[in-house]
């Protein structure tokens, strides 16, 4: 009898400690108010079913970043010795204790851990839950918010928590407090300018004579202008068979095969007949009767420059409009995160990944920004160059591209994004360039930016007047050519045409001005590939 009550007591004790273990909630992230541009619409229906992604702490992420810095440093013996898939996966994998802890927590909330979808390295767990369940798991309340100018609706929360003991195991849970969607980003982009980066492969230009840049390039930027301006006209890609350039496509923006042929006939005759590959991710479509201007710009300028290197267009689905009465589980996550995790699950990843969508840092929760930045570091460690437009490119592991316009002289484009991150500190590779800039700047804009933050952009390229074929017609569209590599701040820093005039006014200030050397408007300048080739 005594034995029996002892057993009973133990059982009681265990179950009490188990439930305490999961009810001791500590805040993970919160906003003070509803993020700008959004308004509260209604409570999220309790029975609505959706997917949440749980990002587990990666056991070896610090080591992976150390590896990345070594293999990207041109003076290091390990330079360009990228990690294998297995090596990267081993760094990305969570600690076994993290897997156990998270599985127990899921079970406690009535979710069968074996029903969870797991990423290849085990660092992302996706589970299907009801709003009611998610609210209990995350000590939160989900609501429907509507974005003013795009009309986009999302299900998000202003704060979320995790049981105290899970903070050591989980980096981020999504969707929670990150509001932006690709649609709201695009909305902001098109109001200003769609700046577009291209690829790093052009750095291997063969020596030759740069043709005189045609004066029409002042107003109309064609692939010929870019190849002349940046000295790639005589470029012959070296590893056409194995090199690939991946272009991230979203929002049912489809790249069109016929338009590409029209574009080639007009601007790149030697490429007529060549094409690109489409990979559909996450239920992404491919409607050839409905070409998208962003998708066409990206594909036409990328192929127009790097032909005959293979281009892959990733048509990424996801984020369907939120319908409260839907009975099917919905994906309310950012398709952007889905594409990155999809690519890291593949056997091979393209050597270059281009993204035309960016976001303002202050609208991205710190935990989310850090996690995405770690994912991008992983791409770098595998040998992929990740290129972003400079609007919101505070991650130290991507190459941020600012925008220029005109020729003779080429000047900073006034809406070129540039500045300093509040989340990530100045990486060592740009310390010297940035401190020279700061020394010259003196007290201008003092107090309005963070001197110790990662500074961007890194480089710049034409961002206005690109010619895009859409539905058979030529449209003027704004975009940019990009270039990638941490070596640009050292060995290759003189391989740029320094852009010294123009500025990026904003936030009621005159912004920063372009000047001699690196600046937060045009970075090191625009690439001069022939000169770069001599330096690298
Ligand atoms: C291209 O490179 C050559 C050799 O370095 C240089 O003389 C020329 O000015 C460059 N052209 C442009 C447009 O930068
Ligand atoms: C400035 O940047 C540093 C480095 O990223 C960061 O630690 C600090 O919190 C930032 N300061 C502000 C006021 O945001």
Automatic annotation (TrEMBL):
CDD domains: Peptidases_S53, Pro-peptidase_S53. GO terms for molecular function: metal ion binding; serine-type endopeptidase activity; tripeptidyl-peptidase activity. Residues 1-16 form the signal peptide. It is found in: Secreted, Extracellular space. GO terms for cellular component: extracellular region. Its main location: secreted. Its cofactor is Ca(2+). Residues 220-536 form the Peptidase S53 domain. The keyword Protease applies. The keyword Protein transport does not apply. InterPro entries: Peptidase_S8/S53_dom_sf (IPR036852), S53_propep (IPR015366), Sedolisin_dom (IPR030400), Tripeptidyl-peptidase_I (IPR050819). Ca(2+) binds at residues 498-499, 517, 519. Keywords: Calcium, Hydrolase, Metal-binding, Protease, Serine protease, Signal, Zymogen. Binds 1 Ca(2+) ion per subunit. This is Peptidase S53 domain-containing protein.
